[in-house]
Amino acid sequence: MTHLDTELIDIALGKIPSEELGRAEAHLATCARCRAELAAIGEATAVMALQLPPLSPPPGLRARLLDSAAAPGRRALVDLMARVFDLAPRAAGAVLDSADDKEQWGPGPVEGMNLLHFDAGPRVAGADTGLLRFAPGVQFPRHTHAGLEIMLVLEGGFIDDCGTSYGPGARLHQLPGSSHSFTCDRTEGLLAAVVVYEGVEIDGYGWVSAAKRQ
Question: What is the CATH number of domain 73-212?
């Protein structure tokens, strides 16, 4: 097996080229060694970031951030959605549009959560793929990931139990054995797309896996 020795730092820093990301994520799903090394690199970079002196934002940053926030909703994420879920752009757009069809949604295991499953491309075959919608202010309990999970935030956002905030366009990798909880945005809630391998165990709710779809 060829490991991701030269790519792990770029993955941790979010700098890996998009054309290489799919292969790297598929390898991480099956390679415990690379997942462990990626987690160690992530911890090291987080410690280094805390040691850096604070910098004053450059002039005009506020205006650029406001312009970015005015992007046209989840449709602005079609290309990223296509790469993460191994879909053609048109198919990725159709999945994003399906979020507006209330008839396609079913209840999730936690109150205030709903699920919409869809079929992704062959690169993520064997994973559970779908959209998650949370009502504003929902507190998702601590849960443990049995396998790799990739989450793409589409609308709204959440704050995790470390106090880190995530908004539209954020892409998160949860490694096997990791656990966390989060609180959804109190105004917009959260709409996200996920790739889940093996499933998760939710405190107070039990085991949820691809084999137990609603």
Answer: 2.60.120.10
